[in-house]
Amino acid sequence: MSAEVFLESYEEIKSAYDLVGYTWDNEKIPRIFVKKIPEEIKKLEGVERRKFFIRLILPIVLLENEKISAEHDEVMSHASKKDWTPEDTALISKVAEKYNIIDEGQDISALPEEEKEKIRYFLDHKIRPVPPAIAVGQAALESGWGTSRFVFEGNNLFGHVSPDPTKGMKPKNWSGNQRHIRIFDSIADSIEAYMLNLNRNRAYNKFRWYRRTHPGNLSKMAEGFDKYAIIKEAYVGRLQSVMFKYGVSRINDAKLDSGESAGVIEKVSQPYIN
Fold first, then answer.
1. Which residue ranges make up each domain of the chain?
2. Of 269, 270, 256, nearest to 3 (Cα)?
C-alpha cells in the first residue's frame, strides 16, 4: 500500500515516528507530514530539539522537491520540442512567467529558435529541487529550530513578509505600515513559498549557479546566500555552521520511501491517510 500520513498533535507525531522507527538520519524517510509544528518543541532542549525539528521538516522538504522535479519534467517535455503547439505554448508561458523567465503576458507563440532555446535553458536551470540540507538548515536558522512566534502563529518558517502590509503578523519591533509577516495555512505552504523564492528571485542567481556547477557541494552553495539577510557574508557562515556543526549535511541524500511504512500507522489516533 502506498500512503501518506498527515499529523498535527505532538502525541500523534511521536507515536507515528516510534511505530515506523523514524530517526533523523534514516536513508529512506517515511511519508509522515506535519501541518503545524507542535508547541511542545519549545520544551525540548539541545540535541533532542534539533533532531525532532529535522524529522518534522525533512519529509515536507522532500515532498516539495518531488513536486518541483515533476513540474520540471512536465514543462521540459513540452519545451524541448522544436515546434510548439498552442497547448505547449500555453503551458510554457504559464511556467516561465511563474519563474520570472518571461514578462507577464508576453507572447511567445512566434519566437525565433534562439529565444526558445533561452527559455529552455532557464526552465531547466531554475526549476530544480533545493538541496535538503540547505532547506532544513535555513529553516533552522530562520525559525530558531522551530520555536519562533511566527512558526506557531503563522506557520512561517522563513520570515516571509505579507504582500499586503495591512495583513499578517506584526513583529514587536515594527511600527506604522511596515510590512507584516505572512501567515500560511501550513508548514508545507511556507516551504513551497521559500523554494519558489530561491528558484526565481534574482538575488539568488549565485546560489542557482553553484547548485548547477557544484552539485553536492553544500559549502559552496551556501556562498550563494550572501544576499539572503542583511548580515550578508556572516549569514553564509551561519548556514555553513548549522549544516556541518549540527549534522544537517548528513540528510542531503535522503529520499522519501515508497509509502509502505505509512500503512502501519493504524495505532495512531485519527490519522488522515490518502
1. 5-74+129-273
2. 256
